[in-house]
Design brief:
mainly alpha; 7 helices; 4% strand
């Protein structure tokens, strides 16, 4: 059994500037995986692309997404993380009727200098570190695990006792 998840860019990670793959791109890549795994003893599965799109929109959204959520609720959306209750059609209707494009939030690459809706939230990990890690991912460079190796200077060394002790 092989389960594949669609990449969902999330805030406060080195991938917060990345775009989520388009529906066409996801279908093409899933087709490649399906064709490459044509063996009787392998079962390939993945989450649906529609809920992954909604996850990306909700995780990278700003205040305007509140209108969509409220409208979707008025349309009857409840317990949407449970597949039997999820109605992408209602979410699409909520986006259309509020005039909000989900691709703007999920499928748009963001510039490193863009002010992000969550930029004012301090998680302890510095923006400089996230930008550096973003570039390392593009360069395909692995970052060492600072739990077992030297500190990566992510910003937590200023507040976390375990990190501070490593730097003494």
């Amino acid at each position: 059994r092989v389960n594949v998840s669609t990449f969902v860019p999330k805030p406060h990670t080195p991938f917060q500037w990345a775009a989520q793959e388009s529906e066409e791109g996801l279908e093409r890549k899933q087709g490649i995986l399906r064709n490459g795994m044509r063996r009787k003893d392998v079962k390939l599965s993945w989450g649906d692309n529609e809920s992954s799109l909604l996850e990306a929109v909700l995780s990278r959204g700003d205040r305007r997404i509140g209108k969509v959520i409220h409208h979707a609720w008025k349309l009857g959306c409840r317990f949407d993380s449970w597949n039997e209750h999820f109605s992408f059609e209602k979410w699409q209707q909520a986006f259309e009727e509020t005039g909000i494009d989900p691709d703007f939030y999920a499928r748009r690459r963001r510039d490193l200098d863009e002010v992000l809706p969550w930029s004012h939230i301090d998680t302890g990990v510095s923006r400089v570190f996230l930008e550096r890690e973003h570039q390392r991912s593009l360069d395909e460079i692995t970052t060492r695990d600072c739990r077992t190796e030297n500190c990566n200077a992510c910003g937590l060394e200023k507040s976390e006792p375990v990190c501070r002790e490593k730097n003494i």
